[in-house]
């Protein structure tokens, strides 16, 4: 905020939403009318209706996140509105959180801590809260991009076998050899499946009944990408039937997940409130880049932008 208030090239007239919760769409639509630029969060739908409400003055949309699934990129392109996002600066924090979820689910950390608080810790027992080792496991990474690779670098210290499925081919991440396999094979072989693809038409529902049926009964699903990549009804059914062992989710559908949602009643599921990038340093860097992008876009200069949407001919 302070940087935007002090900005001189260009100087700005600011309208800031101060609410703790996202602005309702009708309020947002009313307040964007006639603006030149918008700094937005992943909770704001930047769709055709919003672009129409903003009108022809709008030149820049600057998102404080790397994922842009809340933004209709094609509609922005059609109207000549430049889009910015914040790739890279959040990869390490999100990878840290992914490892936290892997360890929490493998070693049943949340269940065990809840039992201690509730007075259910009676004594040490040979199989009390026994989980599985992350050390030496076979981990499958779906989407070996910036965050997927940051996760892989951390896993080198856990002596894992690392499988991945991505469109680009890599053979090593740092000192760790990685094996590219078809998605079905990844689901079949991995002890832990970790999702790091963006949410697109291609990846929506990628982990559904068929994928979950391929997984080992002892396998764990980790999702720090986007909730809609997983079919949550299929996940619940798979957990109920014992087709997989546990899940660690930083992202869900919807967000926030209602407190009475069946996923939250399960001891084999850890749900976090979308905090992958939530370290103070990373959030500050994301805010700085969002401001840089807005100012650059308003000047007509290049900014950090997501790849353009695929045209129908590209598939
Ligand atoms: P990235 O560098 O673009 O990596 C995404 C990877 O997914 C790329 O390697 C890409 O492969 C691969 N991919 C895309 N579509 C695919 C498909 N259909 N099948 C297989 N692989 C596919 O993005 P990132 O910076 O790592 O971020 C990934 C996502 O994480 C973001 O889009 C966002 O939704 C999520 N995220 C969540 C949090 C959180 O707070 N939980 C924080 C940050 C990001 P190719 O390049 O080979 O095509």
Key terms for this structure?
single chain; 315 residues; alpha/beta; Rossmann fold; 8-stranded mixed sheet; 11 helices; binds NADP nicotinamide-adenine-dinucleotide phosphate
Show unreliable segments.
Answer: none
Gyration radius over CA: 21 Å
Beta percentage is: 5-15%
* Small-molecule binders: NADP nicotinamide-adenine-dinucleotide phosphate
Number of strands: 11
Global mean pLDDT: 95
User: What is the architecture of the largest domain at the second tier of CATH?
Assistant: 3-Layer(aba) Sandwich
Order of strands across the widest beta sheet?
6-7-5-4-8-9-10-11
CATH class of the largest domain: Alpha Beta
SSE-based structural type: alpha/beta
Question: For the report, how would you describe the main beta sheet?
Answer: 8 strands, mixed
Number of helices: 11
CATH H-level superfamily title of the largest domain: NAD(P)-binding Rossmann-like Domain
Outline, from the CA principal axes? globular
- Name the helicity range: 25-40%
What string gives the helices and strands in order?
HHEHEHEHHEHEEEHEHEHEEH
Describe the 3D structure.
The protein has 315 residues and is an alpha/beta fold. The protein has 2 domains: 110 residues, Rossmann fold, CATH 3.40.50; 181 residues, NAD(P)-binding Rossmann-like Domain (Rossmann fold, 3-Layer(aba) Sandwich). It has 11 helices and 11 strands. Helix 2 packs parallel to helix 3 and helix 5 packs across helix 7. The radius of gyration is 21 Å and the shape is globular. Bound molecules: NADP nicotinamide-adenine-dinucleotide phosphate (NAP). The site of NADP nicotinamide-adenine-dinucleotide phosphate (NAP) has 30 residues, from helix 5 and helix 7.
């Amino acid at each position: 905020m302070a940087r935007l208030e002090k900005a001189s090239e260009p100087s700005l007239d600011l309208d800031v939403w101060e609410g703790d919760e996202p602005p309702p769409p009708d309020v947002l639509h009313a307040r964007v009318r006639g603006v030149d630029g918008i700094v937005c969060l992943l909770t704001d739908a930047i769709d055709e209706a919003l672009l129409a409400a903003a009108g022809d003055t709008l030149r820049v949309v600057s998102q404080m996140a790397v994922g842009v699934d809340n933004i209709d990129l094609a509609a922005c392109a059609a109207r000549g509105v430049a889009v910015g996002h914040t790739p890279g600066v959040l990869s390490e924090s999100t990878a840290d959180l992914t490892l936290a979820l892997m360890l929490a689910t493998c070693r049943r950390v949340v269940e065990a801590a809840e039992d201690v608080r509730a007075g259910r810790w009676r004594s040490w027992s040979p199989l009390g809260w026994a989980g599985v080792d992350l050390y030496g496991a076979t981990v499958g990474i779906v989407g070996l991009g910036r965050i997927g690779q940051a996760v892989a670098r951390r896993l080198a210290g856990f002596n894992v076998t690392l499988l991945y499925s991505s469109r680009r081919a890599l053979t090593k991440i740092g000192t760790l050899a990685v094996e590219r396999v078809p998605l079905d094979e990844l689901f079949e072989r991995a002890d832990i499946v970790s999702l790091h693809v963006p949410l697109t038409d291609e990846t929506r529902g990628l982990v559904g009944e068929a994928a979950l049926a391929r997984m080992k009964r002892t396998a764990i699903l980790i999702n720090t990408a986007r909730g809609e990549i997983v079919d949550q009804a299929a996940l619940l059914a798979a957990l109920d039937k014992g087709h997989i062992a546990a899940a660690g989710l930083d992202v869900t559908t919807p967000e926030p997940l209602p407190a009475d949602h069946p996923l939250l009643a399960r001891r084999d599921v850890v749900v976090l409130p979308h905090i992958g990038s939530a370290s103070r340093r990373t959030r500050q860097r994301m805010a700085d880049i969002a401001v840089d992008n807005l100012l650059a876009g308003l000047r007509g200069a290049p900014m950090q932008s997501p790849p353009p949407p695929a045209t129908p001919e590209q598939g």
